[in-house]
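Proteins fold reproducibly. Take a tokenised chain:

. . .
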Amino acid sequence: MNLIFRVIMFSFLGALMFASCKPRKGHAVKEADQKGMKDHYRSYFPVGVAVGPQSLKGDEAVLIKQHFNSITAENAMKMGPIHPQENRYFWRDADSIVSFAEKNGLKIRGHNLLWHEQTPDWLFKDGSGNQVSKEVLLLRLKDHITSVVKRYKGKIYAWDVVNEAIDDSPQNYLRNSEWYRICGDEFISKAFQYAHEADPEALLFYNDYNTERPEKRERIYRLLKELLNAKVPVHGVGLQAHWSIYEPTEQDLRAAIEKYSSLGLQLHITELDMSVYPWEKDRREKRPDEADSLSPELEQKQIAQYSMVFKVFREYKKNITSVTFWNVSDRYTWLDSYPVAGRKNYPLLFDINLKPKKAYWEVVNFKK
């Protein structure tokens, strides 16, 4: 009798322990889900992230390898960092990013070959400090693009060749940069030509922001159509996707995708983040009324916006062939200092502790 009683008690206690350890309803899937974002979207498109050398070690490296299958250098391949002086290249940081990608089987997008920002002054000046001629500037551009693209030939499958050449003002067409003032619009077609000559297999993209706003969309479309009509080797358009909880609307996003796709170009979402503040271009200081926290109200708006844009991305998977987030997590984002100095932003799918946010689960829990 005593033995039977002990058997019954042990069985009862075991059942209680099992019940207490069992995941609560609603959390079981999340706790058991060891898939990365890249796995959820394997039949749709590669999912990438912008990185610097500091992201390639420690817990961030672990997160990158779990969730992403493509990377982009956030700054290391831009003209200023990689070519600071006419006769000197700084390859270390870019090489480390390429090496990390190759070691871990990640695709690599190159960013970028020509931009009006982060461009060294020596490009535009001669030995006396005077502005160089169009011929000299185009030759320097060719040397730069050839050196960079050939170094990573066969490793980088796609390049953002020209970045943000369209002006912010609806009254203008092309941005009045030093490139434009010295070369006219020829610098754009020449950049694509030089990149194609350096690596004929690489996909070449024009990359810009606010690509969904109707008036800017039309000017970007005009530029792409002109390039294609002139037989310039451009293969796709990069939609930077520096968006917010306030824009774009689903209607504008769909219209942009269909407009650019009508040209037969690939679409890459190149720099995705979802600011919890309205879009701003001009730098300013933080105001006292701007809180450094993600309120429940802002979080819900962010969840809804991420849900909407990824639903649209999935529907247009034949047109959208890559999606890249701009930075790894809310721990660090470029929006923490731009355009408002000292204001913390929370634009990504992983929080400051590298844990998936509610918006992450909304993005990956969809019907296949």
